[in-house]
Amino acid sequence: MERVLANEENISSTLVTSDGTSVSVPATVAGFMRRVVHALANEQAVQLVVYPRELMIHEVAALLGESRDTVERLLAEGQLPLTGDEAHRRVRLDDAVLYMERRDEQRREALRRLTELNQELGLYAVR
Length: 127
Prior knowledge:
Low-confidence stretches: none
Structural class: mainly alpha
Number of helices: 5
CATH topology of the largest domain: Multidrug-efflux Transporter Regulator, Chain: A, Domain 2
CATH class of the largest domain: Mainly Alpha
Largest sheet: 2 strands, antiparallel
Oligomer: single chain
Distance between the termini: 33 Å
Mean pLDDT: 88
CATH architecture of the largest domain: Orthogonal Bundle
Order of helices and strands: HEEHEHHEH
Shape: flat
Number of domains: 2
């Protein structure tokens, strides 16, 4: 099963219920199901969190793992687009996730460069 789950091409886009009814499953749902089954097969816990399409500022802060003040700064700097009026300020979930992915990629790249520099200076040895 582990081998089958590791190969996304083996995931069918059709779900067959216990009574034999076939239900078409979008590729994003099939990918999600593959990840859940893979995690459970490896004895990992799975948590599903449902978010609205537009988040309040404190929800963005929780999603990003940042303080509300940091999110306010990101909004002021234009790093996160704001929707709604001043009384109902919101951030689109897609925008928050995109920011989080960019931030995480920048952090990975900075860590890679730092590790490379430390290796060049002889401060870090790969074993």
